[in-house]
Structures are given as C-alpha cells and as structure tokens.
Design brief:
Length: 405
C-alpha cells in the first residue's frame, strides 16, 4: 500500500526540515525554541501539522545516529516507526508503515530489525554519549530514555475533588500517581494551561520526579527556607505549600526573567509566604536551603534529547565545579540543625554523588541523612537517585545534608 498523497507531501516537507534538524540538534542549545520558530514561520505548518512535525523531529533527535545511518529518503519513515508512542502520529502510521513490522520494545530488538532492513551496524550504544555508562554504572534502564514522558501536574487547590471534576469537564484525561495524591499524569493533547483551573492557580505543571525531591527531603511546617537557584519556581511553590502559612520561602536566582515568571506563578497560586528576591544577604540564616543546581540536564533527555548530543565528559566536570561552589557558598546560611538540600536533574555521578562526597570532605559539620521513605527510589551513601524507568518521570538526584554544628 502506498501512503496517501497528503502523507507523502508531509514526508517531503519533513525531509527538507531534517536537513536543518540533524545538525542543529548537535550544536543549538536553544534547539526547542528554534524548532518552534521554524514551524511557526512556515505557512505550510498548521497547528495539527506542527504537532506531527514536532513529534517526528523529537523522534529523529532521540535516535539521531540511526537516522544518519540510513538514506535521506528513508529518514521520515524511520522517525515515524521509532515514535510508536506519539498519539499525534497515530493517523499517519498505518498506511505510511504498512510494510514495516511492529516496533519491538527493546533497543536491541529495534537495532536488529533495522540491521536486517538496511544493513550495517545499528548499535544501541551509539544512541548514548560515551561517558553515559561509566557515569550511571548501569543503574539507568536505557529504554526509559527513548520515549516522551507524560506531562505531570501538581495540584495546589484545597478542593482537589473540584479540580478532578474540572479536568474531566475540560476533556482532560489523567492518571493519579500512587506515590502522591496531588500528582497527576495528563493523558491528553489538550493544553491544560489554557483552562480556567490553571489560571485560577488550581495546579502547576511540574514533573513527578521534581515533586519527589522535596517529598524525600521532607521540610518541616513552619520553617524558613531559601530557594537559592529558584528558576521559574516549580519547587519554590511546592516548598511554600509544604512549610505552610507559618513558614516562609525566600527565592532568588541569577536569571531575572525567571524570577519575573516566579512572581507571577506565586501570585496565581495565592501564596503569601514567598518572597522573590533579586539577591539575598550572605549573612542571612535559614532552617533550610535548597540548592537546585544548574547541571547537564541529562535527566531531562526524554523531553530535551538534543542535550544528549551537546554534553561531554568535560562539561560534566565543569558543572561539578560550579555545583560544589554553590553548595560551599550557601552552607554558611544553614542554621545548626538545619538542612542543606542539593538537587540536580542529572543522571551523572560526577554531578551528583561525587559533588556531595567532595562537599562533605570539605565541610565536616554536615552529614548526609537518608530519606525516611525512599519512595521506591535508589538511595546510596550520598543521596537518592530518581530514575526515569522507576516512576515514568524525568531523572533527578537529591541529597539532604544536616548541619550538625
């Protein structure tokens, strides 16, 4: 069976787009924004078509070496075949892939199908950077990094039953997390942030893995915290809810545009116990300091696969120096008996356990405290890893350090 003319035209357009996508994925840090601009300024891409081309583009980037190993004319169909879980492509798949077998689950089985079909070597190892296996010590299931994660939201409204009803009325399907009653995975193409519920502050978009960082750290109600690398404030808002009205959160970040967004989000959530600050007095002291440090972002490869092709072992080492400096800078702001919480969205030991180990060696007045309940996550000597294959999340690392004196 031959694909419909519309599909063949879409493949021709996508082949043209791929000539920009494949090299751009290896060099453009702002690739998602640039792709969005590419799709928005071309009149051939309506809203439905943009979803199709975006899904194909991200499939191509996840499996970039395999795409580069086949003739250009075959790349659109290969990207489509590999994107088996993308609902935006469901209508295109049957006719376009009528002579392709079903997509097997494992990378090794996919590689075997492609080797038989195209010849050559389709190594699963080629789909990850050389440093990955050494940095993760086999703790991350590779297959978990090659599919799009669900969009997770965190409920903020007291009336959760009302939120559930509102989501259903908006046609937004969801699945509750067994770990947290306020965490929902959305199963829909509908934009949940365009709803009245979101505008009223009933929920925030926040990956479940990100939510688990503070669930593992367990800040006490009524305590005073600093979110030292707040960014746009997903964890800031969650932290403000956990410490409650009697507690307080100071939030700061070097990126002023992120703080502007954080202020708007805090206002939408109706939180009165958050102060958004352009800077914080280094002599200020807190019951807890959260250092959600800048990192390689390897834990977000499911959403941002281009980062996989732009991160080297040298980058990890540079980030680790920066992360250690951040921990050392904020250690003095933690009161005796207080908590210093270190977190990254990285899967690499160099940025995670190795940073904490070095910090503890230089700061004997801190000790690592394991979580009371690891929530099914992997806990080691220097912290807890939240792996994508465990709870269908992005990947994170968190270490809770208590200041003893």
């Amino acid at each position: 069976m031959t694909a419909a003319p519309r599909t063949e035209n879409q493949f021709a357009i996508f082949s043209e787009l791929l000539r920009w996508i494949l090299p751009a994925a290896r060099r453009e840090v702002r690739f998602p924004a640039l792709l969005q601009q590419q799709l928005a300024r071309d009149r051939r891409f309506g809203s439905r078509d943009r979803r199709i081309y975006r899904a194909l583009a991200y499939s191509a980037i996840r499996f970039l070496p395999w795409l580069e190993a086949v003739p250009p004319a075959q790349r659109p169909r290969l990207a489509l075949w590999l994107a088996a879980d993308e609902t935006a492509l469901a209508a295109v798949r049957p006719a376009a892939l009528d002579d392709w077998p079903p997509v097997p689950a494992s990378l090794a089985e996919k590689a075997a199908v492609l080797a038989q079909r195209f010849g050559g070597d389709f190594s699963p190892a080629a789909l990850l950077p050389d440093w990955f296996a050494v940095e993760t010590h086999g703790t991350v299931v590779p297959e978990s990094l090659f599919s799009r994660p669900p969009l997770w939201i965190r409920l903020q409204a007291v009336d959760t039953a009302g939120v559930f009803a509102g989501l259903r009325d908006a046609g937004i399907a969801y699945e509750a997390s067994p770990l947290r009653v306020d965490a929902l995975a959305l199963r829909t193409e509908i934009d949940a942030t365009a709803t009245d519920l979101f505008r009223a502050g009933a929920f925030e978009v926040q990956d479940l893995g990100s939510q688990l960082i503070l669930a593992l750290a367990r800040p006490d109600p009524g305590t005073h915290w600093l979110d030292a690398c707040a960014g746009a404030g997903g964890k800031t808002l969650q932290l403000a809810g956990l410490v409650g009205p009697a507690g307080h959160v100071d939030a700061t970040d070097l990126r002023t545009e992120a703080l502007t967004e954080l202020g708007a989000r805090a206002a939408r959530a109706g939180l009165k116990n958050v102060a958004v600050l352009s800077s914080v007095d280094s002599s200020a002291s807190y019951d807890g300091v959260l250092v959600d440090a800048p990192c390689s972002g390897s834990g977000t490869w499911r959403r941002h696969p281009h980062l996989k092709w732009q991160t080297s072992a040298a980058d990890l080492r540079r980030q680790a120096e920066r992360q250690f400096a951040l921990l050392a800078r904020h250690a003095g702001q933690v009161r005796a008996g207080g908590l210093l919480v270190y977190a990254t969205c990285s899967l690499a030991r160099t940025e995670n356990a190795a940073v904490v180990e070095r910090f503890l060696g230089a700061h004997p007045n801190f000790q690592c405290v394991p979580p009371t309940d690891p929530l099914g996550c992997a806990t080691g000597e220097f912290g807890t890893s939240i792996h994508p294959h465990v709870h269908n999340t992005d990947g994170f690392f968190v270490s809770t350090l208590t200041r003893t004196v």
